[in-house]
Structures
1.
Amino acid sequence: MKFNYAAILGVISAITLSPAADAYLYKDPGYVERNVRSIQKNDVIGQSHQYRDQQGWMYVDQVANGATQGFYQAGNWLKLHNRNFKMSIGELEFAFNPSKLDCTQGMSFNFTVGDDTVASFKPNCDDLLNASITYPVEYYFDLIPEVIKPKVELPLDPLGLLKVGVKFGAGIEAGAEFTVGGVVGGHGNEEPFEVDGVRRPDYLYAAVEPYVSGLVSSSAYGSFGHGISEAGVKGKLNLLKVKGKGYVEAGIRRVVQDEQVIEQGFLELKVSTKLTGGDGKIQAYCKKLWGLLQFNVDVMKWDPLYTRETVLYEYASPVWEAL
Amino acid sequence: MKKITIIAIFVIAVSAFLVLKDSDSKPSVQVTYTASESSQPMHKDNHEYGYLVEIHSAVLSEKGTAITFSDLSWQMYFKPKTEGASDLVAILTNIQFTSDNKVQEMPTQLPFYMTYDDGQFTKLNLLGLGEQHTLSVLPRVLDLMSYSLSAALTFEDAQGVKTFRYTQKDNAVSRTRINTASNPEREEEEQWQLTLNDNGSILVGIRELNYHNQQVWQQGGQHYDVVQSVFVRPIDFSSFDYIGWNNNQNATVSTAKLEAKQVYDITDENLLSHLTELKSSLDTDLAAQLGKYLLANQDQNEIKSLLMNHVRLNSALIYALQKAQTPQAEQMLSDLMSDEELGQQVRQKIVMALGRFENATNIAFSSLQTVADNVENTALSNMAMLSIGTMNRFSPMQSQQVAGFLNTKLSDPAQLPTAILAIANSKNPELVEKLPNYLHHSDTQVRNNTIKSLAHKTEYQDQVIASLVQTPHVTTIDSFTRVYKQANYKLSESNVDRLQALYHEQNNPLIKKRLAVILDI
């Protein structure tokens, strides 16, 4: 947040003289994005889509009441043939209290893939004195275990020993870049917080940029040996590449008014998204027994989305406000 | 006329096949096909039974040639669990399955529970056998061996729900289907006959079952005949030990995966381009083959050099080693992990790979443990702890080690918040049961991670709500709301009351908003 020192003085002088009542600042827009992109599919395939959402909130109060808390999360899910799979979630639990030595106690960046928390980073206040840290994480994940791969299956006999089918899997590339930084000084903090003689940051900023891409693959199978090598499906469906971004800032400073020290705070929350890709198709073709599955030529397909970047939500406190 | 020809061809083919099979077979039970009254074993009064089951299945083209055929047979023995009980303990042995003349791997034995009551086999418990396993046809075979003269029976087989009414004349039981669903795509014909023993006093009086099913499948230009027959006849009882079986003991019976794998021709010259292909295809077969190629042709230094010189292929390289799934791959990943020169990003990927390596050994575990215990690199250490939790699901053999390790971390205040998330990853019920102890911890982050890990389960709702109410905090209440909204249960009335009381006490606007969502205000 870039402030002109003179502007700050102007603002301070405009504030009334009454001592601040218990006040707080917050913004809670909830879900700023909730979107589904449905896959065009053959009738025998159940509901299939790629879903994404982003949400966040920020709260600033006096340090005695907990100082600042915040949250941002971007989540991605894949629904294939009626079954839901969590792809990835990038999440920030924001906590900043300048009156504590451990000013970032409670702050954590978490990265989840499927059912697992894969990474959890906790920044250290001492590393954020006019400095920032970045934690990138990224890898490939075989999203759907073999035993729960969605299937379209046709048993040919009553006992089910002779089956032809098509099963779907998903490979994803998922990751997130987490950044956190702190700023000391330059914002009219007249009574900076110091713990054990060391000044704590005036404000903290954090950004979380989770992304996911990948594809749906399919393979034909039969419960018998013959004819397997002649695959009945081909092609891949590329998933939409989704990159979310949550940016937050929050700060608390102390100014002197009428010989009283009052706390003031500000917050910022900005959420944006970048989408690209999402093309391809999976086709079934008649090769001996797979014709019995009644697919027409296209099993699943969609057309690419041209790259678009959108700011979904943006708010920044115009001035430091009394808490 | 055509159908009779088809059946005749089928029977001839099968008989010929059986003759061939017997002539070159491994030692197996001698099956003698004599007149049907020959094998009436002496059941005596101890209700011990043996049956031979044979299933022949085939798909025939329009011309009658077999496109595919399979033969599945087993010997089945069962006896009452305790004297006089209708609960039975049973076992399949000598299980043989060939598909298109290729012998398929089957377990040597399959134990299971069932009940026999007035003509019907019911309450089958396959002790956790995977649904995809071939032997999951057993319930349907037992349905074929069942009948009732007092009521119609409804079964579900692979092709739908069918209801039958049974009639008996002398020793022969026959059945008629009474809910015929019309199937425009196919014509179906079925013959079923159960022959009973003369002696009506024994529990299971089956002397013979003969079942045939033929279906004609037509679509577009394609025409197939699917034929299946099941023969069941008694054999002498062969005793087996029963000391109690656990409900999951067939879960480890592996299911053969019959699928084609594309074979890639990987060479030194095209190695990098295949790795680049892996980046966009994420194909697990390609990954596995690349991994095996790397292990066969490169040593640790060469792989390290690849990693250092081709940063954009790092994920692909590590993923290839992960998917290779061999002890050598596991060792290579562990060795690479200990090389700090590879840098944080590569080591992070290896941490993720080892947690997801299927059936890893102690090598992977120790490697992750060393990283997790190194508190100087907290980012990597936390990731390793989380990966150890995940390892519990991908490598069940390491369960005990994982549990021991995570238990220790619960006593370390610095690592406790992450240990809780790692326990949630593990899904180990004994570890998860310890989590409620942390619902009242003084550290908000500990409470928050615990709430996130327990809030989706109804059995912990009382304890979770108690924690929220006792120490209301915007972060924990927000987390709970998020998880609860996606969960499958509703809060009990008393918990709703507690939250309503909290709602009225609270002044924090965010807490009030979240409670309003939960309470539907």
2.
Amino acid sequence: MSIEVKDVTYTYSPKTPYASTALKGVTLRIEEGEYVGVIGKTGSGKSTFIQHLNALIRLQSGEIKVYDIDLTAKKPDLKRLRGTVGMVMQYPEYQLFDETVEKDVSYGPKNLGLDDREIKERVREAITLVGLDYEDIRDRSPFELSGGQKRRVAIAGVIAMRPKVLVLDEPIAGLDPKGKQEILALVKKLKASFSPTVIVVSHDMDSVAENCDKIALFSDGEIARFASPREIFYDDELLAKTELDCPSVVKVAKELSRLGMSLPSMPVTKAELIAALRERRAHG
Amino acid sequence: MPITFKNVTYEYPTEGDPVPAVRDVSLEIADGSFVCVLGENGSGKSTLAKLMNGLLSPTHGEVLVDGETTNTEEEEALFSIRRKVGMVFQNPDNQMIASIIEDELAFGPENLGVPREEIEERITYALEAVGMTEHRHHTPYKLSGGQKQRIAIASVLAMKPKTLVLDESTAMLDPKGRREVLKVAHELNRQGITVILITHYMEETVSADRVIVMSEGSVVMDGTPAKVFGDRDAVRRYHLELPISDYLAEKLREAGFDLPQKIYDEKSLAEEICRSK
Amino acid sequence: MDNIVFGQYYPSNSPVHRLDPRVKLLIVLFYIVTVFFVADYAMYGVLFLFIVAVALLSKIPLRVLFRTVRAVVVLVLITSAINLFFTKGEELLFSWKFISIYKEGIERAIKLALRLILLMLFPSLLTLTTTPMELTDAIESLLSPLKVIKVPVHAIALIMSIALRMIPILMEETNKIILAQKARGADFDTGGVLKKAKAMIPVLVPLFVGAFRRADELALAMDARCYSSVAKRTKYKVMKLTVADLVAALFCLSVFALVFLNKYLWHFDEMILSLFR
């Protein structure tokens, strides 16, 4: 088990006329090695939820445990928590600040209190891992890089903390198709190396369906369902209730069944749909 | 012809050898058409947009808007062009100057010296056109991204443009916001406004009259969506992403399904699959 | 965030809310001058009743109005204390070691406290009944005679308006950056002043870079909408003086005149006080 969230409720500006409840009794359990998609309309509580995982928001009520770090504790070990949960915010390139790429990437590990050799080692590893040439880029200013490079440097800054859980808030927002594919491939690579658990907030149902093992569907501050993409995207009642869009693949499959063609399985990825159609044809 | 490019090259002023952001582009945009411009980051799309209303003037060549050249320093001539070619940018928060929506809409007409009573009418019309009438006296701060972009469109509409250029105006929006903006763009196009939509999202281009693909500053493809997406090699070469149903159709064809060559959406793909068995 | 966009604006449709903001602003200026000329309790009482009357008319709950005094409580206490302890006079009331309090000291302390509270209350009514946007327009309009001596009045007003629009956006951005750096292990809370200041660099640099980027894009968007500080603009929102404005102005000015005349000519307060003796 890597993350356990129990009955978390959160209200912004409590006890004022502006009070608004962003999370209501959220409970879920994320196992190590899972790739979890967090989806839901804008304002459904997704961001508030992921900010809790890194104690960027103080727990008001409920319990959260990240590995053995208990966020309910009076003084949770924040340093260790932030080394365990790496958070890539929306448009992370807008948070770059230092003179050189190397210095910027080493900000996180430095804050963890590591020694210089270890920091250097991790920075080199992180920059290489995000697909940039360490020797070539280390002394350049992050501000003179291209948009895609900046985003990679920003992600490297989080990776250099070697988080076991990687949380990304809309990592592909605003990218062109090529950049999108590159970042999605990068996330997969990171998951395979040292961040076995990945949590991605996304509006892009196609990429969620394609990549995630499980989906936490938020609606009005609650988890409407925490299940596999298949269970969620084929539950028409749930989709209607939460005004959720389907991935293209599922739309095609549903259209097929409406036209009277039944498939041997319920595909959510492109490969699954193609396999299902081939199988159906092979067996007449 | 509202907008004509004649051998236009644009180089951003830099030290050393200038690299053209737009190279030798010749184009004619037909009145009332819906044109999409696609291309990777850095392919010159946004520069092309800024050349359309004289925010940039060509290093070589000429851009004509209704026969008027944008190669001018004259403020009045430039204003006459910018009034005809309205432009909406990417980040809704970085293009609004007023804290009340009707003031925001008044800004353009005020700059043009439109009389008060007419500004009033134009605000009413523009808010109506984007479906934001009830927000007239509100602040834009609380609105969703899609609503903010609709206000940005309305602010341009209040200048009564003939052409609307949307420079990646959907890039920062969630799917709902994107749909809202696209719906407004198509509706305005039906009312006779020429729309030039610059975007990364291939699915936004399917219902366009014309798709222009840029790469390294040049126009490399130009035609109907069916023609452009039909050229698979080029699609790959310019890192375009096929709409998913189109990608599926291609894969199924490779797997031996008998699907005709055309542009697919989810529905038409399902229909063709049923037919092909 | 609402607090920044609307200041302490308290929405309501009262006659006071509807007054021309220019008139309200001028009345407040006269009021401030008046307060400095008052030095007797009766006139403090008159002004206080005047404020309560205006508050009732503007449908602002008195508790909301009086809450604004909280902002100056510390200032009031400190200045009163200074006057209490450091005013020398004739009548020594209390003395202990180096502290000695005179009757004059007490009187000055009380009067100063009352004056500060009065100075806070009435201008608060202005900001409670007028949006920052209206105030901006009012300032522009009142300053407009300065255009004759080439003061860029419109530009000043535009800057204020853009600031109002951008402050909440930049606040939100600051918050986002702080969270992002915290997620990278930043510690803003421990250490001395120097360490804390240094810890803010990773927040301030992206904030400034972002602000410049926004400013760039905003300038482009304004250009696209034909903004020019020299061209002849029209103005959508024209403020018009109404009979109500004149009545309000006359009423307020007569109250202030009463206070002045009392000080220099009539000494009403002594007349009134003598009735009770």
3.
Amino acid sequence: MIRFAAFRPSGRPARPEPRRSRGIIRGLLACAIAAPGCQGAPEGSSPEGTPDQTHVPFERLVNADAEPHNWLTYSGNYASHRYSRLDQIDRSNVGGLRVLWAYQMDDGIIETTPIAVDGILYVTEPPSTVSALDARSGRQLWTWSPEMGPDVLNIGFPRVNRGVAVLDSTVFVGTLDAHLVALDARSGAVRWDVEVGDNAIGFSLTLAPLTVKDKVIVGVSGAEAGVRGYIDAYDAETGELAWRTYTIPAPGEPGSETWGGNSWETGGGSTWLTGSYDPELDLLYWPIGNPAPDWNGDVRPGDNLYTDCLLALDPDTGEMIWYFQFTPHDTHDWDANQIQVLLDAEWEGEPRKLVVTANRNAFYYVLDRETGEFLHGREYSKQTWAEGLDENGRPIVIPGTDPTEEGVLVWPSLQGAANWFSPSYSPRTGLFYQPTRIMGAVYFKADVEYVPGQPYTGGGEQALRGEEASGAIKALDALTGELVWEFPLLSPPWSGAMATAGDLVFGGDNEGNIFALDAETGEPLWNFQSGGAVRSGPMSYEVDGRQRIVSSAGGTLFVFGLD
Amino acid sequence: MRQGANGNARFGLAILGAAVALAASPLAAQEALAFSDVELERGQRLYQAHCGRCHGVLGMGGEGPGLAVSRLPRAPDHAAVIDIIRDGIPGTGMPGLRATILPDEEAALVAAHVISLRQAQLVEIPGDPERGREVFETTGVCYSCHIVEGRGVGIGPELTGIGMRRGPEYLRASLVDPSAELPVFRSGARSGFAQYLPLRAVTRDGTVYEGMRANEDAFTVQLVTATGSIVSLRKADLAELEKRFGHSLMPATASLSGEDIDNLIAYLASLGG
């Protein structure tokens, strides 16, 4: 169903906040209301002749590396490097970094990565609010919240949002009640609002969408409610569904033989983290989540394709070009929803296009991203469930590691060695920086029956805690996964990392530290005790010719600089 | 006599019955009777799974207080038990169990079992609390490290109300072999981390600090020395940081007789009861 802001025949009304004082904004709002889809000013300029700060055509996204003062996609570029080419802040001066401004949000967990476009930061606030901030001062320009009742379901994850996507003059956000909403970038007015999935049976959107060409691509949460997952692409102008690719094949479709009985109908395979895109190959890479029910695999005999897979898709049609499954017949909730990092390198003497990922199951993978061929894999964090990977990358599972009614202790815990929080890849060091959770858990299996809108998990875990668990920022050789250095953390982290051209790696920990490490050695160079747990998507931008570092902690977004 | 002893009684009606019983009579113990045998048995199993680790499978206590006692001061009735199950008790080891872990229906059954435990009154404590107080104040020299009701020195855990937080067997183990197991945070951001962990830190210039960990993160550590000084250290300045698991600064009470220890436990168990 598509709901236009101007017509709004039924359902949730848009509620843009009335914080618009400038004539230019009012004028554009009138335009948007009069003609939904109207893009306002012509490309590159505003009606008043000043440079258009809010126009980001697809070409700018493809060439994001050419404008390091901005941060145009969730992971900084389509290759998902989460690497800033700004180098003003470096090893020699990072010790002088201080808070320049902070933006306080309402209660809730902040997992947003701000998008920076020419002096404006677009951030999301929990659960599904979007705010535009003056990147110089932190003052709010506009804010928009969906109207959601308190009964919105979030089964299997907290009420979070990881950020927006931009394309042309529109900002796109997924909401906890599983809508995708297009907002005018200057005013926050709603251009269109579509329902991606039915929240009453467990669908939600927490990820930052990805805009590719003329489409907005989103994935869904909901495997813990037994949904059948899919990836959707919507026309950015109109909100019409362009394609939908299910992650669980129906009977007769390829891969359906990996599901017993009717288990495919409630098979999970959610798609809740932003994918990557290769403009040259014109391939979209999207990671897929766990099968449902999570911990009781008896009801779904088989490998359960395409759960815990990486899919390569045609972005125009959604057609699956190849897949690679990390954890066949997963019984530990090890979604493959980790950031997929694209890099080009020499592999055994030949230039090769690669996709690398540190998976939740504690193995690091190197794949050929044209074909999906498994090239290399190795353990990067403590694990006790597999002897290793075979020549095709399939895990050699150790018997007796599936959950039982009595409980079985296995590393890693269900939250995995990696999770949603981003790794970073620095082309300067060739290192892959992975915040790593070193934690085991006792896994339990239980009987389970599918009830729509209820948890469908079939067990659970008791994770080791306190001194029995720990964390680290691990610097891995991006081509081999071998450990080069690690910086220990007191507890398993929930924050992403960002490397910069200043040869720094920024990260955060549960104890409240936002910190910078030497990208080559791991030596700690700066830290700020924020007073709140860090669950951040760190990023960097530039305003007034000065580099800024952004990380959230607790309920606050902090912006740091040297001046 | 069981009200509504029909095993097929709907849960909602059972709770309604409990509410009516509560309203009609201040004797809250009657309310548990609104649950059928089948429900109480299920409540017992859930209790064992969720609560037994700290409160004891039989409700005789452990790291948490015994619940098989005549009166639970914080939880006089079924509704109050449910509130504690949901919200936990801030400042103690009692965590709140959310509905995703323990649905409403199950929380009500667990609470019913807890209420039923009071009839068992299994927790028996040998010893004389009044004599225990004397031991505490004299030969035990406990005030030199512990505060009770405002008196004493705050090096070790405060013992005001300790009888409401710990079971007698846990208290005994803490007295006889304090190094065997350090208490851990049971809730909050530091859940699972050891409390009162002895540390030995040596700075790069050779200064040695010993004490108990107050807090720690990747960059800093804070400790309290045996004389009560608070020391803040940056890990970058340390040559060595030893975490002495398996040790406690609490001296073993080997010099006390078995009777003294019994009396001491009786005194501690009476605190806050």
4.
Amino acid sequence: MNYEIVIGLEVHTELSTKRKIFCNCTTQFGGEPNTHVCEICSGMPGTLPVLNKKVVEYAIRTGIATNCDITTNNKFDRKNYFYPDLPKAYQISQLYFPICRNGHIDIIGKDGEEKQVRIHEIHMEEDAGKLIHDDWEDCTLVDYNRCGVPLLEIVSEPDMRSAEEVIDYLTKLRSILQYTGVSDCKMQEGSLRADVNLSVREMGSKEFGTRTEMKNMNSFKAIARAIEYEAQRQIDIIEEGGKVVQETRRWDDANGESYAMRSKEDAQDYKYFPEPDLPPIIIGKEWIESVKNNLPELKDAKKKRYIEQLGLPEYDTGLITDSIHLVRLFEKTSEICKKPKIAANWILGELLMRLNESGKTPEDIDFDDSSLGKIIVMVEEGKISRDTGKKVFKKVFEENVDPEKYVAENNLGLVSDTATLKPVIEDVIAQNEKSVNEYKGGKQQALQYLIGQCMRALRGKAPAQEVQKILKELLDK
Amino acid sequence: MMKLSEMTGIEISKMIKSGEISVKEVLQDTFDRIDKTEKTFNCYVTVDKEYALQQAEKVQKLIDSGDLDDSPLAGVPIAVKDNICVKDKLTTCSSKILYNFKPVYNATVVEKIQKAGMIIIGKTNMDEFAMGSTTETSAFKITKNPWNESKVPGGSSGGSAACIAAKESVIALGSDTGGSIRQPASYCGVTGLKPTYGTVSRYGLVAFASSLDQIGPLGRDALDCAALYEIISGKDEKDATSMEFDKFSFSDIKNYSLKGKKIGVPTSYFGKGLAPDVKQRVLESIEIFKSLGAEVEEFDLDIIKYAVPTYYIIACAEACSNLSRYDGIKYGYSADSKNILDTFIKSRSEGFGLEVKRRIMLGNFVLSSGYYDAYYNKALKAKKLIQDAFFKAFDKYDFLVGPVAPDTAPSIGENLSDPLKMYMADIYTVMINIAGVPALSIPCGVDKGNMPIGLQLIGKPLDEKTILSAAYEFQRNTDFHKQCSPLL
């Protein structure tokens, strides 16, 4: 029998606001356990939440970029459940009036045609803390640093039919979240997490099959593998005459299989009710318009501008715009060196090579974003040679050195002032009478030889063009 | 010279400012009274003399330098209900589960009273987590009514009302979720104000029912309550439900005339169940308002029949969620156990009292899937109807008058056995919290057993001024508020 896979996604993304959703603590990742906490996010008795307006703005941005209707009258609700990483024993979320509804993202479907994946809703909520199991001490510790970090949950309709479609949807969604500046979407740090709702049905059937929900996939690859595993598992059950059980399953990427976490019967009753500590948030047309007008340039618009205004080749543009991290570096570098084409060449040449060599991806770039621009300026102004520039860049990539300081400290700069160059070149002319005569006799190769001799005497620390210019002046005198 | 114990906070503060008496001397007088009667009345969970003296020293300097000239209650001792957080000081909510809890921060009202130069002398006993109307559900002690030791002081702010009646404090902060300031004020013969929801910051008030809780003052008279209300009210950036509103000024309540003012008297407040003595005193008080020039009209507030069920559904729902955080791990009582799940379960089973558990269970029930629409959602609709009924009444009347409670203080042990009866006794007060409007309880005489009776004045939203002014007028023309317990 032929089966169709039906998939819907619940994506959680941590927002890159500086402050938490209901208090002033930093959202920074890392940090010693329980250092980014206060009485509010640790749920001390008597404390109250105050909404960070930036979170609403980021949610509106996401809604606009995913073609959603923005809810005017927003409310928060309490989702009550007990877990040690949730200090209030309830999560402030949105159930009844989510901020965005009825959107869609366009993807390339299985058949190669463009298709829409509908967004059911997007809502705002707070993240929980983290439990750390200490095997050595045989105890479990809790870190509240992540408590209250703002999240958006983006819920799609069950519109996807294959792992490829899911990956395309996630790639598009990630690009939107990154380009709008809403989230950095680092899956390893948990700032993008996707739960997969999957069922299978006989091809052509209108009824949905029983679905399972899968959690704990830490990369796009893991998501694709988990989908293929789960679809096959469900098909096997049906083929053997069994029934798929509605349950939540946990993906174990190391073993390439999933196992049941809890069944529908064990599903919690979250006892949602309207959050009494937060008044409704009214989002008027003006607010939406102002967010719309200040929306950062999205991927397609950027591509178009790079090609049409900066004159970058389409292929190069595609490579850069695939990663917001490359885009950010490219724009910063261009701003410094004022030569976008050259900036693009360095990024696609030197940078991608270094990333490849070190097995890193653009989001791992951790050197100062002005460094590449500074290197290009030095090369273009003839202060260092292109080869030196590449060496300096390697140092920047590996150790995040300040390129200008590094060049100065290691004496890598080119000497280009005539006063310094002239005596050396005069010396070379004096010592190479034979070649000088040959040149004067019309032999062009002799000039190349003399230039070489000069560069050797200067130990390469002079721009070749400048040396040639002075040499010719002296010879032609 | 008048005895300090007969003076109001404003009078005491004036004497301190004029140099007739020092802050320390006032404190000493209060502590002497505490030493004498606290063993009998049990008003406090904690009395902190050392902390009070520390504050007094600072405040005396500020008063001497004239920095507190504008504060009407500078130097005045104040008792704070034990569900309001004072940094590094025990804040137990009279619950075993928080028996050792010391907050790491101050409630906004605490910051405000300290800035105004008031001296916190201790934390008052209450019904556990403010759930109850007798202060008997406290895990630590039973507060006695200073008018009669065999009677309860009311609740949940029983300690705050009793300490004023016992002259163990000049003034106090309480909290009112369904009558918890007004009813004990009524039982103990003191004045107490439940302000408009959103006018006093709840930041640092350990939550019972977030949409109903409100902190308010209890004192010897309306003027003291008005002065303390001025100090503690105002928009707070830390409480999103607090409102922006025109600054209230306590001295404004002195320039008010009852002439031509229209008072509404809800007939449904005088139905079956109202004790004859209470009814009599309240009707006499209404006559006093009339004699002062007010027009009085009866009207129907039939919706009162939905008040108690609506209140208990909303309050318990919010309470069960607010109280889920007490797990015996992060702070408070932790039961010894072999594993973590047992620790959670045992800590909560042993840490919470019977009434609190009853309300947690009720709350979980009304919120659970399948029952939400039948109970919680319906209660929200009833809340809207109750609000509308009040707004309609306020189209016609400047304020409303009625009893605070159906009867005077019951005997200790009388009510606990019958929770339903206890809940029904909240009928005149819970409506006010559902509507979010302000209401005041002032003494209006005693019953046959010489127990105080309270008169309730109910105002329009944000119109504390009218009910406080009317109370001030009433108290200028009567001396019920000056009568005190025969035991003192």
